[in-house]
Design goal:
Elements (H helix, E strand, L loop, with lengths): L12 H26 L7 H22 L7 H22 L3
Helix pairs in contact: 1-3
């Protein structure tokens, strides 16, 4: 007797790339408009910004999992796609859009 198991639904990598672009643009705008006041030596808010960045990253992972309907076992692969997209865009921006 042959048993049919339901096929596992895989995640959509295109959606994850789009999420990576959106997250990168949000970070770009935050750094562009708030960077000169926030990211300076001796700023007492730097520790709070570091802790907030960890919390924001956790929230963005959860949002990506919900929007992309990612299973727990596929979450690492999905986060890697989002992060690699953002790192690729950082490289493009640093290479061609300096100034």
């Amino acid at each position: 007797m042959i048993q049919m198991t339901p096929s596992k639904k895989t995640f959509n990598p295109i959606l994850l790339v789009i999420l990576g672009v959106v997250y990168w643009l949000e970070a770009l705008l935050f750094i562009r408009f708030g960077g000169e006041e926030l990211f300076v030596n001796g700023n007492p808010w730097m520790l709070l910004l570091f802790v907030a960045a960890l919390l924001i990253a956790w929230v963005l992972v959860k949002v990506s999992a919900i929007v992309g309907k990612i299973d727990r076992q596929d979450l690492l692969s999905a986060v890697a796609i989002v992060a690699l997209t953002a790192m690729f865009l950082d490289g493009v921006a640093l290479t061609w859009f300096q100034g």
